[in-house]
Model the fold of this input.
Amino acid sequence: MPTIRANSPLITQINVFTVPDGGQAALIDYLSKAAEAAREVDGWISASLHRSLDGTRVVNYAQSADEDAARRVIKRLMDRGLIQGNKAYGEAHPGLYEVVFTLER
Done:
Protein backbone atom coordinates (compact mmCIF):
# COMPACT_ATOMS: atom_id res chain seq x y z
CA MET A 1 0.00 0.00 0.00
CA PRO A 2 1.37 3.46 -0.84
CA THR A 3 2.60 5.61 2.01
CA ILE A 4 2.52 9.37 1.56
CA ARG A 5 4.38 10.93 4.47
CA ALA A 6 6.65 13.97 4.43
CA ASN A 7 10.29 13.73 5.48
CA SER A 8 10.55 9.95 5.27
CA PRO A 9 13.26 7.96 3.47
CA LEU A 10 10.70 6.63 0.97
CA ILE A 11 11.31 7.41 -2.68
CA THR A 12 8.46 7.65 -5.14
CA GLN A 13 8.91 7.13 -8.85
CA ILE A 14 6.21 9.03 -10.70
CA ASN A 15 5.99 8.31 -14.41
CA VAL A 16 3.41 10.16 -16.47
CA PHE A 17 2.71 8.53 -19.83
CA THR A 18 0.98 10.24 -22.72
CA VAL A 19 -0.85 7.57 -24.72
CA PRO A 20 -2.53 7.51 -28.13
CA ASP A 21 -6.31 7.38 -28.31
CA GLY A 22 -7.50 4.03 -26.96
CA GLY A 23 -4.03 3.17 -25.56
CA GLN A 24 -4.63 3.27 -21.83
CA ALA A 25 -5.72 -0.34 -21.32
CA ALA A 26 -2.73 -1.85 -23.14
CA LEU A 27 -0.25 0.30 -21.20
CA ILE A 28 -1.95 -0.47 -17.88
CA ASP A 29 -1.71 -4.19 -18.65
CA TYR A 30 1.98 -3.84 -19.55
CA LEU A 31 2.81 -1.78 -16.45
CA SER A 32 0.95 -4.28 -14.24
CA LYS A 33 3.26 -7.02 -15.49
CA ALA A 34 6.31 -4.81 -14.97
CA ALA A 35 5.17 -4.19 -11.37
CA GLU A 36 5.18 -7.95 -10.80
CA ALA A 37 8.88 -8.01 -11.80
CA ALA A 38 9.65 -4.98 -9.61
CA ARG A 39 7.91 -6.60 -6.66
CA GLU A 40 10.75 -9.15 -6.42
CA VAL A 41 13.34 -6.44 -5.62
CA ASP A 42 14.32 -5.97 -1.98
CA GLY A 43 13.07 -2.57 -0.83
CA TRP A 44 10.19 -2.32 -3.33
CA ILE A 45 7.03 -1.21 -1.52
CA SER A 46 4.15 -0.59 -3.90
CA ALA A 47 2.91 0.37 -7.34
CA SER A 48 -0.29 2.19 -8.22
CA LEU A 49 -1.57 2.91 -11.71
CA HIS A 50 -3.88 5.80 -12.51
CA ARG A 51 -5.68 6.54 -15.77
CA SER A 52 -6.85 10.00 -16.75
CA LEU A 53 -10.55 10.44 -17.34
CA ASP A 54 -9.88 12.02 -20.74
CA GLY A 55 -8.09 8.86 -21.94
CA THR A 56 -4.78 10.57 -22.76
CA ARG A 57 -2.53 9.69 -19.82
CA VAL A 58 -1.52 6.91 -17.44
CA VAL A 59 0.40 7.63 -14.24
CA ASN A 60 2.56 5.03 -12.54
CA TYR A 61 3.17 5.83 -8.86
CA ALA A 62 5.70 3.39 -7.40
CA GLN A 63 7.43 3.49 -4.03
CA SER A 64 10.67 2.06 -2.70
CA ALA A 65 12.18 2.07 0.78
CA ASP A 66 14.97 4.48 -0.19
CA GLU A 67 16.88 5.76 -3.21
CA ASP A 68 19.12 2.68 -3.43
CA ALA A 69 16.07 0.42 -3.57
CA ALA A 70 14.48 2.65 -6.23
CA ARG A 71 17.62 2.38 -8.35
CA ARG A 72 17.64 -1.42 -7.91
CA VAL A 73 14.05 -1.54 -9.14
CA ILE A 74 14.94 0.57 -12.17
CA LYS A 75 17.92 -1.67 -12.90
CA ARG A 76 15.77 -4.81 -12.67
CA LEU A 77 13.24 -3.34 -15.09
CA MET A 78 15.96 -2.17 -17.47
CA ASP A 79 17.71 -5.55 -17.39
CA ARG A 80 14.44 -7.22 -18.36
CA GLY A 81 13.76 -4.72 -21.15
CA LEU A 82 10.61 -3.52 -19.43
CA ILE A 83 11.51 0.17 -19.40
CA GLN A 84 12.49 0.17 -23.06
CA GLY A 85 9.38 -1.83 -23.89
CA ASN A 86 6.97 0.69 -22.42
CA LYS A 87 7.92 3.13 -25.19
CA ALA A 88 5.72 1.12 -27.56
CA TYR A 89 2.66 2.27 -25.60
CA GLY A 90 3.25 6.00 -25.23
CA GLU A 91 5.65 8.76 -24.26
CA ALA A 92 7.07 8.48 -20.72
CA HIS A 93 8.08 11.30 -18.37
CA PRO A 94 9.69 9.58 -15.33
CA GLY A 95 11.20 11.04 -12.18
CA LEU A 96 12.19 10.13 -8.62
CA TYR A 97 10.59 12.19 -5.86
CA GLU A 98 10.54 12.76 -2.10
CA VAL A 99 7.36 13.81 -0.29
CA VAL A 100 7.95 17.23 1.27
CA PHE A 101 4.41 18.25 2.31
CA THR A 102 1.06 16.63 3.02
CA LEU A 103 -2.17 18.05 4.42
CA GLU A 104 -5.16 16.13 5.68
CA ARG A 105 -8.56 17.15 7.00
Summary: The longest strand covers residues 11-18. The first helix runs from residue 24 to 38. The CA atoms of residues 10 and 74 lie 15 Å apart. The mean pLDDT is 95.
